[in-house]
Amino acid sequence: MSTTGDSTTRAEWPLYEVFVRGKRGLNHVHVGSLHAADDRMALTHARDLYTRRNEGVSIWVVRSEHITASTRDEKDPFFSPSADKVYRHPTFYDIPEDVPHI
Amino acid sequence: MSDEHVYLSLAEGHDDSDARWAFGTGFEDPLHGVDTAVPEGVDAAELAAHCLALGDDALVAAQRLAEWCTRAPELEEEVALANIGLDLLGQARLLYSRAGQVDGTGRDEDAYAYLRDPADFRNVRLAELPCGDFAFSMARLLVTSSWRLAVFERLARTAQDPVLAAIAAKGVNELTYHRQYAAEWTVRLGDGTEESHRRMRAGLEQTAPYLEELFTAAATCGADPAGVRHEVTAALRQVTEAAGLPAVEAEPLPGHGREGDRTEHLAPLLAELQGIARAHPGAVW
Question: d(Cα B280, Cα A98) in Å, to the nearest integer?
């Protein structure tokens, strides 16, 4: 907001995607999106919108426009080749019971 | 963690989850399970007055913040302001409950919130001023949360009543966030456009005559007033300098909210706050 010379006024604040890591969660998961004027504001908004019920211990926010997503048209070439590759799954090993998160 | 509802699964199954549902429906006594005996050497009437005054500050401030619902500039800010208001309402509930235990009347929290007239309230007057524009609300939040944080930090360490000390300790993290939220907006608006700077400056100027009342009020709730004054002044200076705004200074307003002096704005606020409870005494939902 303090950038002078930027004469274009946005109709609304840019969109951010929010990722929260729960206390027990191993990694950040996508929980939703929000509008904010800058990165810092996005973080406080995420705190207020998505961690009100004690869901998180860590938050990531990223501008939605910075996310590159696979498209629907690419679905088959991207994902179907992995369907019949059973050897990619660790099914030929015995996993000890006390090894978590596999 | 279930894959289908990742967000829901974040919220469940914490080991230390007992702090999550502090208040819901069906909780008659927020201090349930706490040893409520007044320690020896503590003046019960004085303790009750401290709790009541700090409870009134919080209740009135929470009501003003709730007025932003449906009117805030952005949905995200609306939730943030409501969150902050509800934090303060939670503090008011605990403080009123404590007041009722120690003042000998046995009144519950609702009796203090709904059944007292404006002349009986002892909140600082800054809390009852109308919402104004967003900049004034941020200015007020910055000033009151800085002050309340300084007071609660001291009460958490030095209050002779362990219940009041525990209530203050619980509030410190909440107030730290309130101050941070307000400080970020003060800098954003002060260092923003010409119009936002003008409004932020006007908002802070409007709070200035009420500052002295806050400092002297610290003494009336048992916190070292010199320390509070020093800490609040330093915090405000840090924020206003970062925002490119002048220091918050003005001639203090005569009178004192803690002695029952009111502005014209408290009565209408309480009329709205208390209307339903008084029209339907004892009603539950």
Answer: 59
Full set of structural domains in chain B with CATH: 39-279 (1.20.1260.10)
Residues of B within an 8 Å Cβ radius of A = 1, 6-7, 9-11, 13-17, 19-20, 74-76, 79-80, 83, 177, 180-181, 184, 188, 191-193, 196
Architecture label for domain A15-69: Roll (3.10)
Q: Is A25 within 8 Å of B10 when comparing Cβ atoms?
A: yes
Distance CA B221, CA B123 (A): 11
Q: What is the CA radius of gyration of chain B?
A: 19
Contacts of A50 in chain B (CB under 8 A): 7
pTM for the full model?
0.83
Nearest to B140 by CA among B53, B52, B217, B203: B203
Q: What are the structural domain ranges in chain A?
A: 15-69
Q: What tens digit of pLDDT does each residue of A45-79 get?
A: 999 999 887 777 899 999 999 999 888 888 788 88
At B248, phi and psi to the nearest 5? Answer: -85, 105
Q: Is A57's Cβ below 8 Å from some Cβ in B? A: no
